[in-house]
Amino acid sequence: MRKILVGLLLTIVSASCEAQVDKFAKIPALKPQQKKAYFASGCFWCVEGVYERVQGVDAVISGYAAGAMKNPSYYNHGNHTETVLVIYDSTKVSYAQLVGVFFEITNPYTVGQAPDFGASYRSAVFPKEGNQQTLIMEQLKRYPNHKIDVAPFANANFHPAENYHQDYVRRLEAGEQVVNRSYGINVSIPRRNDFVRATKIPLKKQ
Q: Any idea which residues carry the catalytic annotation?
């Protein structure tokens, strides 16, 4: 009887640990033509919703980056900032175009994006190669005294967020249950829609 109880206890503990691991999104393996880019511009729900509409973007994963904490979560992510990982097909969209999207949706003079301000929502880009760094710095010349952080790609230290944060706008519009529905309706969707109306970047057909 004791062995049975111990076995049941181990099964429960194991299942609990697996649930904790599984609650965070996973980064898929890249195909040869795919590349990664990281962008932070306020709430990751909003940024994810924008990049998911860009033609050539294969996946967008919300997460936490640029901090020191090893296992960040939504309610405890230390000095990480809300960031999205953009996985894109480099034969269909360029890094320069993705950077262009970032500047279209980002107010460079605030630490965060309305209505979310503070270190957790600060704006940041993470160039991987010298030409990417040059591209970003040229753009930033247009914004003296900007508040945008530029950090090396290797320093992103990106951690995917919990599954319930992923595909937030898409799930909201599909009528699925999401957290903070009013925020999505009043902030995330309008920010995405403003981008769609104004941009000249090729978008996916709906």
A: 43
* Bridge partners for 59 per DSSP: 87
List, for residues 107-125, the tens digit of each pLDDT value: 999 999 999 999 999 999 9
Distance, C-alpha 113 to centroid of its chain: 14
Domains and CATH numbers, the chain: 24-166+174-198 (3.30.1060.10)
Distance between CA 126 and CA 105 in Å, rounded?
A: 16
Judged by DSSP in three states, 139 sits in: helix
pLDDT tens-place string over residues 39-68: 999 999 999 999 999 999 999 999 999 999
Secondary-structure breakdown of the chain: helix, strand, coil percentages, each rounded to the nearest 5: 40, 20, 40
Cα–Cα distance measured from residue 159 to residue 69, given in angstroms and rounded to the nearest whole number? 10
The torsion of the CA quartet 119, 122, 127, 131, rounded to 10 degrees, works out to -130
